Amino acid sequence: MKRVYNFNPGPATLPLEVLQEAQAEFLNFDNSGMSVLEISHRAKPYEKIHNQAKADILELMGLGEDYEVLFIQGGASLQFAMIPLNFATKENPGSYALSGTFSSNAYKEAEILGVGEIAASTKNENFCRVPTQAELKISKNAAYFHICNNNTIYGTEYHYVPETGGVPLFADMSSDMLSRPWDFKKFDLIYAGVQKNLGPAGVVIVVAKKSLIEKSLETLPTMLRYDTFYKKNSLYNTPPAFSIYMVGKVVKWIKNCGGLAEMAKRNSKKAEILYAVIDDSNGFYRGHAEKGSRSFMNVTFRLPNEDLEKKFVAQALENNLSGVKGHRSVGGMRASIYNAMTLEGVETLADFMKNFCRQNS
Ligand SMILES: *Cc1c(COP(=O)(O)O)cnc(C)c1O
Question: Which of 56, 211, 282, 348 has the smallest count of CB within 10 Å of its CB?
Fold first, then answer.
């Protein structure tokens, strides 16, 4: 069986061990005589998976009883709307730092509702960095301050936790959730579509302070209220059971590897290898991100011209390196090197990049 090194941004590569484990128990899950796709979400074996995944996520993040884990469908994109619907008003708007496509999309939903403000933006630098602390202009009366922790498309990442002056801190961590130890306690609400770093598409993990989500506006429809998910243990309606089952396995895999400290060690090593190739290429490869904002998850770079970029993608694929084409808004290449990307995969890409540079410069 031939498997490629998968550098796609999402859905993305998953740990081989996890896929094999799921395959092995696919037809007969937990001696039920059914696959996990077929069992009731009210059945005991499913409940075990669901609650264990929640507990493991909190444990990895070092969060306690004051936080709750929710499983919600609709992607991170629905969170862009649910957040202002649940928390922002005209008097207390949501405040947004714009650092790329997804944070801009998040702001757009608040804008539609007339409850958004912009605290900072790096748009006129083509989002080559995240805003600095000094640039953040957060209104005192803001309901929350929202950031996108890792900008999947532009390849930039926050390497500091913003100080908000008491305004609740919210973050889209879709593409770097559980990739490194982080001061999660400083955040009031974190969400992540799992298809980047934590599982297959179909579910968003929301980790929020209980005090924030225990009561939602009475005027909101049931499925748009956080308290619906909180009060019913994310089982008000049928959850995406298979996605949650897979997330549970990935989270267990992270724990078995040594937790977030070990993930960070592996991820920074992988990122350093690729950034070193870029920096040592005499300008053949040009990184999109400013050095201080470089992402450990998505490495973005351009080549001297578009013909070479096309050639790079084609030859990469011949070398078993799949998914390296960048997003159209940045152009060039993007190597997504989430938790499950192996060091071997990154070293193969680095060798390929060095050879390609030698042959074409
Ligand atoms: C992919 C991505 C999204 C969009 O996620 P969907 O689940 O497709 O809605 C939002 N934010 C970030 C940071 C992403 O990487």
Answer: 282
> Cα(103) to centroid of ligand 1, in Å?
10
Best of 151, 174, 338 for a ligand 1 pocket test (most atoms within 8 Å of beta carbon): 174
Residue 33 lies in a domain: yes
Tens digits of per-residue pLDDT, 18-58? 999 999 999 999 999 999 999 999 999 999 999 999 999 99
Is pTM beyond 0.90? Reply is: yes
Pocket test for ligand 1, best of 156, 175, 247 (most atoms within 8 A of CB): 175
Are 89 and 220 part of one and the same domain?
Answer: yes
Question: Can you tell me the distance from the alpha carbon of 166 to that of 152, in angstroms, rounded to the nearest whole number?
Answer: 28
* Cβ count within 10 A of residue 169: 19
Question: What distance in angstroms lies between residue 357's CA and the mean position of ligand 1's atoms?
Answer: 32
79 lines ligand 1 (CB under 6 A): no
Q: State the Cα–Cα distance between residues 35 and 339, nearest whole angstrom.
A: 27
205, 192 contact by CB (below 8 A):
yes
